[in-house]
Amino acid sequence: MKKIVCALLVGMMLTASACSFQVRTNIETGDGAGSQTGEQTAGQTNSRETIYQVALLQSLTQGYYDGIITVSELKKHGDTGIGTFEGVNGEMVVLEGKVYQALGDGTVQEAAESETVPFSNVTFFESDVAADLTNIDSMASLKTTLDKTVQDNGKNMFYMVKIGGTFDKMFVRSELKQNKPYRSLDKALETDQREFSYENIAGTIVGLYCPDYMGGLNAPGWHFHFISDDRTKGGHILDLSFREAKAELDMTPHFDIQLSDDTNFQKMELAKDVDAAIKKVETNE
Ligand SMILES: [Zn+2]
Q: Which CATH class is domain 2-36+43-123?
């Protein structure tokens, strides 16, 4: 295992000097889903060290819920991550190459390959850094503790994190599928958010850390989703507590974004400041 980690770190040092920022659209196909983005232009090594993002958190927050790629396509870009589905039909957790859909009724299903995705972040997970977490009594304490690890390892990288354990408290939300015309996400959640509270639940947290310069494309800081070990419960985490767990972090130097050539997407004003709405939808505040 140690050998693998060392090789990975060397790989990162080599690639870090040429951090890539790629923008893609599905213009080749002119098709909302099923675009030809499976071809890795970044090269094999880089593609595994890439945070692949579908659209922007800002487009989702403004109410662009149309799927841009299929679940099948998303899986070509990572085995671990978070996101949502067309019509914000549930919270996405990608773990060990499987894409789970935590629905607004509190159930979880494996997403169909043909299901489509309006927003997601995935990567091929390889643990670079581990951190022991103890006595975490809130989201704030989880974020503060993980922030220390990020500060120690480089705050301007992306990190995907997995935290497996038994959680004393796990408070999650999902939402009901939206129908057109779509409302903005904060408005949709005002009526259609559903919350679920679990105690003593074994499972895995999958989270993404975005550096602080990512405010225009995503949200700086942490965003966590949860799935239970028995794959029957999950969602976007609003609060939690646990006594101890181990976090594994994948430090990732490349970023790749998949946009849409759809007319409605192209008409959006994506520089519009939706920070307050993002904070509200992410944290319930
Ligand atoms: Zn979420």
A: alpha beta
Asked if the domains 2-36+43-123 and 129-252 are classified in one and the same CATH topology, the answer is: yes
Instruction: Give yes or no for a cis peptide into 181 (omega within 30° of 0).
Output: yes
Q: How confident is the model at residue 47 (pLDDT cuts 50, 70, 90)?
A: confident
Q: Under DSSP, is residue 130 helix (H, G, I), strand (E, B) or coil?
A: strand
How many whole angstroms from 82 Cα to the centroid of ligand 1? 7
User: If you classify domain 129-252 with CATH, what class do you get?
Assistant: alpha beta
How many A from CA of 137 to the centre of ligand 1?
20
Phi/psi region, residue 72 (left: phi>0; alpha: psi -120 to 50; beta: rest), is: alpha
Please say whether the beta carbons of 248 and 207 come within 8 A: no
Q: How far apart are CA 206 and CA 68, in angstroms?
A: 22
Distance CA 64, CA 277 (A): 14
Write out pLDDT tens, residues 79-133: 999 999 999 999 999 999 999 999 999 999 999 999 999 999 999 999 999 999 9
Ligand 1 centroid to residue 48 C-alpha, Å: 23
- The CA distance from 252 to 237, in Å, is 23
Q: What is the pLDDT of residues 182-211, one digit of tens each?
A: 999 999 999 999 999 999 999 999 999 999
Collect residues with CB below 5 Å from ion ligand 1: 236
Structure token pair of residue 1: 């295992």
- Domain extent listing, the chain: 2-36+43-123, 129-252
